[in-house]
Write a structure and sequence with these properties.
The complex is a heterodimer of chains A (about 400) and B (about 375).
Chain A: H1 10-39, E1 44-47, E2 52-55, H2 58-62, H3 65-95, H4 100-135, H5 137-143, E3 155-168, E4 171-182, H6 185-191, H7 201-206, H8 216-238, H9 242-253, H10 255-260, H11 280-309, H12 317-325, H13 329-344, E5 348-350, E6 354-355, H14 356-359, H15 365-396
Helix pairs in contact in A: 1-3, 3-4, 3-12, 4-5, 4-11, 8-9, 11-13
Chain B: H1 2-28, H2 30-35, H3 45-56, H4 59-76, H5 78-87, H6 89-108, H7 117-145, E1 149-151, E2 157-159, H8 172-196, H9 200-230, E3 233-236, E4 243-246, H10 249-256, H11 258-279, H12 286-306, H13 325-328, H14 332-342, H15 345-359, H16 366-371
Antiparallel strand pairs in B: 1-2, 3-4
Classes of the chains: A mainly alpha (about 400), B mainly alpha (about 375).
């Protein structure tokens, strides 16, 4: 694409450019499918011989609801980020009264594309949250800081958390210092009506018979049972007991065992029930800040289009400065989204099946810290260089 | 039984694809070879710019092949991935860092406002050019020389040294292959420059460097190959799964798979012929013989590493933990799904071929370096 100009035909060049765009989105697809599988493992059966989950349905893995939500949410947030980038730089040109025609045209495209992307981000975000409430309910309760389950649950639009004296195990329960709540909306968004019950963290730890929610200690027992079966298999393999090997393989293929025991396999590594609660403050704030930013973006793009169509944009200097300084915000929102995804799924590396402790290698902590520092220093240096190059290019402006 | 055959077939099919990618990668590392020469070969800034741009237009091919090789290896033989990355940590990290700095170096070096200056990014290119091929050579050598690890019943790796991969730098055979790959990359880099750059002085100097770099290459390569032919290897009995050490295993592999031996010999002859016509006849097409030779020779080395019930990742600590094509692969279903995807490879190759030819239509000249809009 870069060197092809003047060397290949215009059509071939355009095709290459489109292939780059499609390829970039496709590579996002596969990596997000892999991540989604860890959040909600589907389409596989555990093979005791190789001690791993093996894919049995390619389509179940691809069309995993989490994967679909995640892909659409991630790429639309990427479109949004790109739009904000263009809007910000164009605003800077208008502030400087340079390249006005180009800047206005760019704002038009970025405004429309950004506005539509923001809507898509909001819709896919809503769908993502609903999916999380079904497949990762503990993450969901954490991101809403919901300890006690309830019907008519309100949606917290804004809230600040504080510690309380209460504890679940050794974890301190958080409560709201301030909150602005939209009544019943959480119940409506997750269950379709205001009477639907939204389980809280306590329901997941202690269980709730009435609502058919299994207690964590029960899941731990079932996980240990499943691990015990795997250990029996291993002993049979060592003694080359073929009858036993075949019979245990049968257990792993049994639907009832899969649905009621193996699906809690990872709980065998859980020491205390409260361990399955992720960091509530981190998940709550990252989620709510991300959502707030999402609505701010929608507003900014709408205002950009409004001022542009009224031909007032060059005079609204406060808006141009706001747009300019909004440049880093979509990056922050994206990072918040990933913090929510990854901190929120703790302590699981594969939801309910594999505890993070099971995925850790024996590499020394010091080595990992060293690697981290190397990465941090190198990438910070490269980031400085990259930003400096971009600023230089932007200041130079387009060639006429 | 039918399932067994097709599973075995798929495991071998994927080993061939991984081997082919590895051999293409070693050929394409002529880019790294060229980078490793940017301080010693050019006599002035223009020549340096020509070298960087000749390599720069190809670096993405090498990088993408590296990623595809890694990805295909990971997907088809995941147990290798988890075992090696969880154990030989520092070697892989060093390889990773040496490639991170490459990508940005090309993009940033000539841009105004890059903060650290051209020289810094040229050092990055030099580091990637020297360390990349060397470390990859060392890592691949462990496919023959082995590592000290064991696997438990959950297939979790336990590395039995405290060096986590650095110990592979203490083995003279690993070092020999590392240096052989590095000097081969430099030879191919020089041959590529001779082929693609239109500058008499630079071509002449490249010819001189070619002779200097051939000596250490031949020395290291011969040492590695001879030691390989005399070394023992681990073999598995397919019926019982018992792993034993077999004397002269790799020599036996060559003799029991004569096609692989022919590929290997053809490869060696190709590299030598490419070198020969460039040095003696001053031909400018040596890269095509040397390049094809490189692909064939590396392909055959990968085939004797994994085929014929040979352990491609032997554990010298616990034979039974060693990795074979049959115990380290993905499931039948996964390999089959991947096979369908692999049918797209010829189309991608055709696209690469077309793009490569279009970009290489004319040689890199002084005028182009001064006029080209997209220049590294």
């Amino acid at each position: 694409m870069f060197f092809g100009w003047n060397k290949v035909s215009k059509k071939f060049h355009l095709t290459s450019t489109w292939l780059v765009a499609v390829g970039a989105n496709l590579s996002a697809l596969w990596i997000l499918v892999a991540n989604a599988w860890m959040q909600h493992p589907v389409g596989m059966i555990f093979n005791p011989e190789t001690a791993r989950n093996e894919m049995v349905s390619f389509w179940a893995v691809i069309f995993n609801q989490v994967a679909v939500d995640k892909f659409l949410h991630t790429i639309s947030s990427g479109f949004l980020l790109a739009s904000m980038f263009v809007l910000s730089i164009s605003s800077w040109f208008l502030i400087r009264k340079r390249e006005q025609i180009m800047a206005r045209r760019s704002i038009l495209i970025a405004g429309i594309f950004g506005f539509l992307s923001s809507l898509l981000v909001a819709f896919t975000g809503d769908s993502s949250a609903r999916t999380i409430s079904q497949v990762q309910p503990v993450k969901f309760a954490s991101m809403e800081a919901l300890y006690e389950g309830k019907t008519n649950a309100g949606l917290v639009a804004f809230g600040l958390l504080k510690d309380t004296d209460k504890k679940i195990g050794n974890k301190t329960v958080k409560d709201f210092a301030i909150k602005i709540e939209i009544p019943s909306l959480l119940s409506v968004l997750t269950g379709g009506d205001r009477d639907s019950y939204v389980p809280g963290l306590k329901d997941h730890i202690d269980g709730n018979v009435e609502r058919k929610i299994m207690a964590t200690p029960e899941k731990m027992e079932r996980g240990k049972y499943a691990l015990g079966v795997l250990q029996q298999y291993n002993r049979a393999r060592l003694t080359k007991d073929k009858v036993q090997i075949e019979s245990i393989k049968g257990i792993f293929n049994d639907k009832d065992f899969q649905a009621n025991y193996f699906r809690y396999f990872g709980y065998a590594s859980v020491q205390k029930p409260e361990e399955v609660i992720p960091n509530v403050s981190v998940t709550f704030y990252s989620f709510h800040l991300m959502v707030m930013l999402g609505f701010i973006f929608l507003l900014i793009f709408a205002m950009a289009l409004y001022f542009l169509f009224r031909d007032e944009i060059a005079d609204k200097r406060w808006f141009l400065w706001t747009a300019l300084f909004s440049l880093p915000l979509p990056y922050i929102a994206s990072e918040l989204g990933w913090i929510l995804t990854e901190v929120g799924r703790q302590p699981w590396i594969i939801q309910d099946l594999m505890h993070v402790s099971g995925g850790v290698s024996q590499i020394k902590t010091g080595s990992v810290i060293t690697t981290f520092i190397l990465f941090a220093v190198l990438f910070t240096g490269l980031l400085i260089s990259e930003i400096s190059i971009m600023i230089k290019q932007i200041k130079t402006g387009p060639r006429h | 039984m039918a399932t067994m055959i097709s599973y075995l077939f798929l495991q071998h099919y994927w080993w061939i694809i991984v081997s082919l990618l590895a051999s293409l990668l070693v050929f394409l590392m002529f880019v790294q070879g060229g980078q490793s020469l940017i301080f010693s070969l050019p006599e002035n800034d223009l020549q340096k710019s020509m070298i960087v741009n000749a390599m720069g237009r190809k670096w993405e091919f090498t990088f993408t092949t590296l990623v595809t090789f890694g990805g295909a290896f990971f997907a088809s033989f995941p147990l290798f991935y988890s075992t090696s990355f969880g154990g030989a940590y520092w070697v892989w990290m060093a390889i990773l860092f040496s490639f991170i700095i490459q990508a940005v170096a090309y993009e940033f070096r000539s841009k105004p406002g890059n903060v650290f200056g051209k020289q810094t990014f040229d050092i990055f290119l030099f580091l990637n050019g020297s360390l990349g091929p060397f470390l990859i050579g060392v890592a691949v050598a462990t496919f023959f020389t082995g590592s000290r690890f064991s696997l438990n019943y959950l297939n979790q790796v336990h590395w039995e040294t405290q060096w986590y991969g650095l110990e592979s730098l203490l083995n003279i055979r690993n070092l020999a292959l590392g240096f052989a790959v590095l000097f081969l990359a430099r030879i191919n880099g020089l041959l590529y420059l001779i082929n693609t750059v239109d500058d008499e002085d630079l071509v002449k100097n490249s010819g001189k460097k070619l002779i200097i770099n051939s000596m250490p290459f031949l020395l290291c390569f011969l040492f590695f190959v001879i030691s390989l032919l005399f070394s023992s290897g681990l073999t598995v009995d397919p019926a019982t799964g018992t792993v034993t050490s077999e004397n002269l295993k790799y020599l036996h592999n060559f003799l029991q798979m004569p096609v692989v031996l022919i590929i290997f010999l053809a490869g060696v002859v190709g590299v030598l012929y490419g070198l020969g016509i460039s040095v003696i006849k001053k031909s400018r097409n040596g890269i095509w013989f040397s390049g094809s030779g490189t692909v064939l020779a590396v392909l055959s080395l990968f085939l004797i590493a994994g085929f014929n019930n040979t352990s491609f990742y032997p554990s010298s600590y616990n034979f039974q933990s060693s990795l074979f094509i049959r115990n380290a692969s993905s499931s039948l279903f996964t390999l089959k799904t991947m096979m369908y995807v692999s049918f797209m490879i010829p189309f991608i190759m055709a696209y690469i071929w077309y793009a490569w030819k279009a970009i290489n239509k004319s040689k890199i000249t002084e005028e182009e370096m001064k006029s080209e809009e997209h220049k590294y």
